[in-house]
Amino acid sequence: MSKNILSLRHVAYSYHTTQGETLALKDISFDIKQGEFVALVGPSGCGKTTLLSLIFGLLTPQSGNIILPHKEDGAGNSIGYMLQRDHLFPWRTIYQNAILGLEIQKKLTPATKAYVEHLLEEYELSDFSDKYPDQLSGGMKQRAALIRTLALNPDILLLDEPFSALDYQTRLNVSDDICKRIRKAGKTVILITHDLSEAISLSDRILVLSKRPSTIKYELQIDLDDAHRHPVRSRTTRQFGEYFNILWEELQNESEPAK
Amino acid sequence: MNQNQPSNHELFIKAHKRHHFLVGFYRIMLFVVFLILWEYSARAELIDSFFFSSPSGILACIYRLASEENLLFHISTTLFETTVSFLLVMLISLLTASLLWYSDYFSEVLEPYLVILNSLPKSALAPLLIVWLGTGTKTIIIAGISVAVFGSIISVFTSFKQTDKDKIMLMETLGGNKGDVFFKLILPSSLPQLISIAKVNIGLALVGVIIGEFLAARRGLGYLIIYGSQVFKLDMVISSILILCIIAFGFYKIIQFFEHGHKKKNHAPS
Ligand SMILES: Nc1ncnc2c1ncn2[C@@H]1O[C@H](COP(=O)(O)OP(=O)(O)OP(=O)(O)O)[C@@H](O)[C@H]1O
Ligand SMILES: [Mg+2]
After folding, report:
1. Could you tell me the pTM of the whole model?
2. CA atoms of A78 and A66, how far apart (whole Å)
3. Pairing of strands A156-160, A188-192
4. Using the beta-carbon criterion (under 8 Å), do B189 and A103 form an inter-chain contact?
5. Which fold has domain A4-77+155-255?
6. C-alpha angle B191-A104-A155 in degrees, rounded to nearest 5
7. Which chain A residues have a beta carbon less than 8 Å from that of B268?
8. pLDDT reading at B270 higher than 60
């Protein structure tokens, strides 16, 4: 049994504007284990992005705690946060975009550069490293954005709808491809998605958020063998339909108007 | 099929070149026809060449100015003053806009002042500047700056502010602080706007410098224009205005050169 890499305890957060207060997250508690792949689903505007920003530290919880236990060697676990859109800078080449994080954190060394080159190779972008983003396809840009996050070698990856900008066909291939590689690298992942089949086929566990002000409404453990961890093949399994129905019901209840 | 493609492309290139050639040709033709009509009307006394001069009169006048009145000195004075004003305007507006961007308080407090200063007719300031600073080169340069600087600050600040909020958030997810955001995101993403602002500024700086020279100088093209009109040497006025046109065009070309360099760098074809 691997240990917890991240724990949230009664986390709450509200946005304040002159119009008033929006309570986005009411009471969120969960644990994530080392190496786990967790999907986060919930109705639109329920606070999923807010939750990732809190975990990363861009926002500070209004109450509650976010606990990141230290590793054995005493160092903290680092977090990589990949936003919904690729946001590659058009004035930088793919390689220059990929090393942006290293450059900012002053970690550009021969070793880290070699790592970025290795990643570009692994994600089949090395032929494009001197090209500019507008010369790449949507799927390639998404992979380049992922490399920019991976270059900092984070232990935990937060992915906010990373595939939503892609067309369906590309999305199936890219999500399968990227998630396999991330799994192989032993990263811990929290993935936000609106696509239930994507959530089922990619993750070990799914957390369902209620609508705003949100709490964790439901937790679903996914048991699929590796052969069926694929956005298309998973659908042929017996469990898939079951999981899908459970999630669908849970979310359906959420989108009905409150009485 | 393979034979078709290059020939189609060749046709395209040919049409493209032809288009450029024709545009250039008509441009020059327009100018030549204008000169001929002007010269003809003056010689046939359709227009009074005392008031309207003529191309040959202007050439003669420029030759005379160059040999007797030290025309090159006047031109270089105006060029120097305009260049210094322009560079200072760019520097001041970049620095001020950066400060405004850095602190929201600062920008909110200063905004109405900037708007008022910008909408002020700047030529109204010139007489005041002369009283305060005397009639030297310094006054002329400050007149040039005063015409361009407030609008420039506002435009540069606006272009800084237009940067995508999500891209700023991206910089934060990579651990960037405000300085990183500024130098790695805000500045490079505003570069195209900065170049257009520079184009506007160089024109305004020239306007400011000429206004300054009208009022407070013993040298420069603005002085030649005013002096010429006072002694009714309209040849001299028109010649100076023509030289100003050429200078403005030259400045424009220089900035365009930088613009092309920037575009080439960003969209290097492979
Ligand atoms: N900067 C902000 N100021 C005020 N309210 C905000 C702000 N950002 C988000 N909110 C509000 O907080 C709630 C949660 O927003 P959040 O972006 O976390 O939702 P989400 O679950 O990621 O939505 P989606 O699925 O559409 O991406 C929304 O109701 C939104 O209106
Ligand atoms: Mg969101």
Report:
1. 0.84
2. 14
3. parallel
4. no
5. Rossmann fold (3.40.50)
6. 135
7. 132
8. no
pLDDT for A138 equals 87
Distance from C-alpha of A159 to C-alpha of A191, rounded to nearest angstrom: 5
- Render pLDDT for A24-35 as a digit per residue (tens, 0 to 9): 999 999 999 998
**Mean pLDDT, to the nearest integer, of B33-53?**
90
The span from the CA of B34 to the CA of A165, in Å, is 57
The ligand minimizing its distance to the Cα of A40 is: 1
Contact B170 A152 (CB under 8 A): no
Residue B3 has pLDDT above 80, yes or no: no
pLDDT in tens, B225-265: 999 999 988 889 999 999 999 999 999 999 989 888 877 76
Report whether pLDDT(B213) > 70.
yes
Q: Which CATH class is domain B77-267?
A: mainly alpha
Cβ atoms of B238 and B253 closer than 8 Å: no
Domain ranges, ordered by start, for chain B = 77-267
What own/partner pairs with CB < 8 Å and gap ≥ 24 does B196-200 have?
Answer: B197/B93, B197/B152, B197/B155, B197/B156, B197/B159, B198/B86, B198/B90, B198/B255, B198/B258, B199/B252, B199/B255, B200/B148, B200/B151, B200/B152, B200/B155
Check if A154 has its Cβ closer than 6 Å to any atom of ligand 1: no
A126 lines ligand 1 (CB under 6 A): no
- ipTM, 2 decimals? 0.85
